[in-house]
Amino acid sequence: MVKTVGEKPRLKAQYKEKAMPEMMAAFGYKNKLAVPKIEKVVLNMGLGKAVIDSKIFSEAEKNLSLVSGQKPAVTRAKAAIAGFKLRQGMPIGQKVTLRGARMYEFLDKLVAVVLPRVRDFRGLSPKADGHGSYSIGLRDIAVFPELAEKEGIEGGVEVTIKTTAKGDTEAIKLLGLLGFPFKSNE
Prior knowledge:
By secondary structure, this protein is an alpha+beta fold. The chain is 33% helix and 20% strand.
């Protein structure tokens, strides 16, 4: 995947060397353990078309496992919805939860390789969910380098970054210090 510095992923080293001291100065943390950090990253694919064609589901599973380096878990419908031809318990999506070194490597790849490849990309919105988490929706999963040589890939992916920050300002500052390209005026 992404090159690492020694044993640690590059982004984790950047967190400890650059982001942690700046967060302590900006928000007045007295202890390094009080500084917000990234807990986990969740990749989610909704596969509504898989109700009609089950081949889409298996192809999406291969693509998501190539992108994340882990086998995705299946998400199932909680209730039946006749208008969508959906029965309770039907598989409707897939998700992967990344933690530790694999999480930092994925985020490094997202910032350094994937986001610059997104068509008409002008930066990420500096608005989060109000609880210290940040979500990015990518319309096309084919922007990931692992899927570059494949053709006919459909579907998007939602990337949710869960931090231990108490609010949006801390979360956005942390992600900005880690290299996430936020829009300056919004």
